[in-house]
Amino acid sequence: MPRKGSTPATTHAPQQSLKPIEELAAMLGLERDEIELYGRYKAKIDPGVLSRLQDRPKAKYIVVTAITPTPLGEGKTTTSIGLAQGMQHIGKKSIVALRQPSLGPVFGIKGGGSGGGRSQVVPMEEINLHLTGDIHAVSAAHNLLSAFLDASIFHGNPLKIDIHRIELRHVVDILDRSLRDIIQGLGGKTNGNPRQSGFDIAVASEVMAILALSKDIFDLRERLGKMVVAQDMDGQSVTAEQLRAAGAMTALLTEAIKPNLLQTMEGTPALIHCGPFANIAHGNSSVIADLIGIRSTDYLITEAGFGADMGFEKFCDIKCRISGLTPDVAVVVATVRALKMHSGRFKVVAGKPLDPGLTQENLQALEEGSTNLVAHIENVKQMGIPVVVAINAFPTDTKAEWDCIARIALQASAVAAVPSTHFVDGGAGATDLAEAVAAASEQPANFQFLYPLDISIKDKIDTIARRFYGASDVNYTEEAETKIKTYNRLGYSELPICMAKTHLSLSHDPKLKGRPTGFTLPVRDVRLSAGAGFIYPICGTMMTMPGLPSDPAGAHVDIDKNGKITGLY
Fold first, then answer.
1. Which of 22, 51, 267, 274 has the greatest count of CB atoms below 10 A from its CB?
2. 552 lies in a domain?
3. pLDDT band at residue 260, thresholds of 50, 70 and 90?
4. CA atoms of 488 and 349, how far apart (whole Å)
């Protein structure tokens, strides 16, 4: 039957029901001097704890991904949180590791980004508004590097930087379309050299990707030094190390590298740390958080950004290569409405009412759109991981629709397909899902990367395009070809690939729903994140500084007569 109850969109845990953060730390086996308190309900964990935890057994490692989402999202975060709470309901110790929300989406279209209903990480206001300042630290470190770059050019340009081949822009964690493209350095010689530049949202900074992938403070320092900011007149890389900025950047991030410990509404421990973009970066929470979480409980549940073609593939081929951890189960989140949309019969537009056809039983449209689900199940299976499909339930769903999805998922070799009412019912609504995931984690996993690192850049791109997206060919612009030759010459050919494409289709074209095949994937540019350690081909136009909508979520954020923040839920 469809889930019961109304949608508790504004439900959140009152602070008096929250556990003191020291109690959460004790549940994980952390000692008092291994955490740093930020008030009563959040703390940072000293990464040095890893040396003490190394002899502990590893938890089961569960990654939550999804089908190709609608613009509204399919509930990976709420499912991850609900699943962690569901594990506690069936007597399993668990922790959930999530990305930190950016202020851009919080005040833009999406609103708050730490779950919803009865599957939230709390305190919600603090998570969505600055938390412990990690993203601000990333912004400061990035913009410090930018200032060092411009100062070097201003003071005689000793590194012979070619101002026409500067890769580094500026960042800010607010959506402001007017900053996408700017001319800087106007107003005379003392204000620097005029040149075209721009701003990206802070979470698109390579510094954020580096922070998320670093294993300790020394790894962070080394990676920051490798950041390529420009090329010189001879076509050689100019790095943050050469600009003598990497040390100061590391100093700005000494607190930000420490994972943030919080809790769900039901008192399940949660790690909120880092939030790299899921298109031009890898879209996963931090390696350090996972390394701590995997030694602190029985089940570590983490979320990968967007659909399995995006965050999950990067989770496996980038994050797992660095962490050395391998997943035991992948949970693919699906919704009835999204699978109907993938039939091609309906459109979903953020900010506009849903087509009524998406909320009425239509088994034919559901079956047609489920080709997308099958593609994602098959993609996950390529990595050698058991798949459980989580059907994120809505009140308008019917049992016949859930049964249809389950039949298709099982035919595609998913281990199980389970409706979950965690949004309305919290962990109690995710117990069936938790049981299915726990059972699947006992099955043998034969994890494997999608490609080896020693093949060419083009062969890696081709492998992802054909095997994960369904493309029949890949086409490169002249600029992309030139960049690939440059990265080969500079010695970056053995880095993994971080594909940048739309998240709204398995292909590069957001209009192509379901399971498109036979298309040619266009690669218009190829860029380097040498510090993070990947190359990112750009397929289509990537927006790294979105703009506010006509009715931004931030317009509804305020304080009430008691001084409490409202409008974030």
1. 274
2. no
3. very high
4. 41
Q: Are 208 and 274 in contact (CB under 8 A)?
A: yes
Q: Where does the pLDDT of residue 2 fall: very low under 50, low under 70, confident under 90, or very high at 90 and above? A: very low
Distance (Å, whole) CA 397 – CA 399: 7
- Per DSSP, the three-state class of 410 is helix
For residue 101, report the phi and psi dihedrals to the nearest 5 degrees: -65, 145
3-state secondary structure of 453: coil
Report how far residue 290's alpha carbon sits from residue 323's, in angstroms, rounded to the nearest whole number: 8
The conformation of residue 467, written as its DSSP 8-state character, comes to: I
**Do 108 and 185 fall into the same domain?**
no
Please state whether the peptide bond connecting residue 123 to the residue before it is cis, i.e. omega within 30 degrees of 0.
Answer: yes
Q: What CATH number is associated with residue 227? A: 3.30.1510.10
The C-alpha atoms of residue 120 and residue 556 are separated, in whole angstroms, by 20
What b/e readout covers 313-336, taking b as 16+ CB neighbours within 10 angstroms?
bbbbbbbbebbebbbbbbbbbbbb
| Beta bridge partner(s), residue 522 | 475
Looking at the structure of the chain, the number of domains it has is 3
Measured between alpha carbons, how far is 70 from 182 in angstroms, rounded to an integer? 32
If you search the block for the tokens 């499909």, which residue do you land on?
389
Give domain status of residue 435, yes or no.
yes
Query: Is residue 378 located within the same domain as residue 505?
Result: no
Pair 339, 370: CB distance under 8 Å: yes
Q: Residues with Cβ < 8 Å from 390, sequence gap 6 or more?
A: 64, 79, 83, 331, 332, 333, 334, 418, 420, 433
Q: Are 272 and 44 in contact (CB under 8 A)?
A: no
Give the H or E element holding residue 202: none
- Is the alpha carbon torsion for 28, 33, 36, 41 positive or negative? positive
Given a contact cutoff of 8 angstroms between Cβ atoms, the answer to whether 273 and 43 are in contact is no
- Nearest-angstrom CA–CA distance, 440 and 69: 24
Full-model pTM: 0.95
Q: Are 94 and 60 in contact (CB under 8 A)?
A: no
Per-residue pLDDT tens digits for 454-473: 999 999 999 999 999 999 99
Query: Among residues 407, 440, 473, which one ends one of the domains?
Result: 440
Q: Give residue-wise pLDDT tens across range 389-438.
A: 999 999 999 999 999 999 999 999 999 999 999 999 999 999 999 999 99
Is the domain of 126 the same as that of 154? no
In this structure, what DSSP letter does residue 362 have? -
User: How many whole angstroms separate alpha carbon 375 and alpha carbon 41?
Assistant: 41
- Using alpha carbons, select from 73, 61, 165, 62 the residue that is nearest to residue 116: 73
139 and 181 part of one domain: yes
Chain mean position to CA 319: 11
Task: Report whether 473 contacts 521 (CB < 8 A).
Answer: yes
Taking alpha carbons only, the member of 522, 388, 369, 449 closest to residue 66 is: 388
Q: Note whether residue 120 is domain-resident.
A: yes
Domain that residue 469 falls in: 457-538
Q: Which helix (H) or strand (E) holds 39?
A: none
